[in-house]
Task: inverse folding
C-alpha cells in the first residue's frame, strides 16, 4: 500500500521554482492552511504547494492551489506555522466530498425470492 511518503516522493516532478517559506495561506471559501509553501509550475500553470506538517492524530499532507484562488499569504516562522496547522485542523479532503458507502440490500427472512404481491408491503 502506498504511503504519504511515497506520494510526496512522486511529487518531485513538480520542482519548486523559487518561493520557499513557512506561511499561513488564505484562499477563497474562507479556508486557511498553514505549512511550508513552495512555488511550482504544473502543465505550464503556476501553483503553490502547501506541505502541511503532521499534527496530533493527522499525518502530513500536501495541497496544490492555483494562484487565482489565493487572497493572502502571510510568511511566518516554522514554529508558528506548525502551531497554526494544529489549531486550524484542515483536512486534505472533507468527509462530504467522499462517495457514500454503498448500502447492502437486506433480504427479508420470510422472502421466498420470488416477486409476488406480498413483496409490495
Result:
Amino acid at each position: 500500500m502506498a504511503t504519504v511518503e511515497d506520494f510526496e516522493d512522486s511529487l518531485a516532478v513538480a520542482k519548486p521554482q523559487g518561493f520557499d517559506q513557512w506561511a499561513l495561506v488564505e484562499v477563497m471559501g474562507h479556508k486557511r492552511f498553514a505549512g511550508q509553501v513552495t512555488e511550482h509550475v504544473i502543465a505550464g500553470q503556476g501553483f503553490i504547494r502547501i506541505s502541511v506538517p503532521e499534527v496530533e492524530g493527522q499525518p502530513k499532507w500536501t495541497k496544490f492551489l492555483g494562484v487565482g484562488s489565493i487572497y493572502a499569504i502571510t510568511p511566518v516562522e516554522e514554529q508558528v506555522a506548525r502551531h497554526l496547522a494544529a489549531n486550524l485542523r484542515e483536512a486534505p479532503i472533507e468527509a462530504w466530498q467522499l462517495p457514500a458507502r454503498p448500502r447492502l440490500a437486506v433480504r427479508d427472512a420470510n422472502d421466498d425470492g420470488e416477486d409476488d404481491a406480498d413483496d409490495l408491503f
